[in-house]
User: Fold this.
Amino acid sequence: MLDATDTRLLSALQKDAHLTAHQLGELLNLSASQAGRRRQRLEAEGYITGYTARLDPRKLGLQVQGFIQVHLGTHGPEQSASFARMVNVRPEITSAWTMTGEADYLLHVFCDDLSALNSLLHQVILPHPAVARVQSQIVMDQLKRDAPLPT
Assistant:
């Protein structure tokens, strides 16, 4: 169970994962060792699944961000597993979800340019044997960056 101090700790770490036990202790009115133990417990219990750096896609040359809705022509365990394998080996596909509604999958992609997006669509995704059709949307601007989860 999470208490109010745990949720405040999680909220602080989502904003800055570099916070030391000493800094967390100051924020939470705990000793550094108490804050460190709480952090370790939340990691061990799976509330904290890892730490990453947020990179600027444009500085990396990734000029096109998009979403691709994928509609399968055939549904079954083999097709789903094969599609999932393809998704997991493509670095341009940064996130993928199975969906309710018309589309079966929603993919979040980052590509160098429109030509690279076109290649991803026409040489990788559409030729997959389970895929019937795709619909893509290019992101014009991102109004809100991926935000911390509500705690």
Observations:
- The longest helix spans residues 32-44.
- The first strand starts at residue 64 and ends at 72.
- Residues 88 and 94 are 9 Å apart (CA to CA).
- The mean pLDDT is 96.
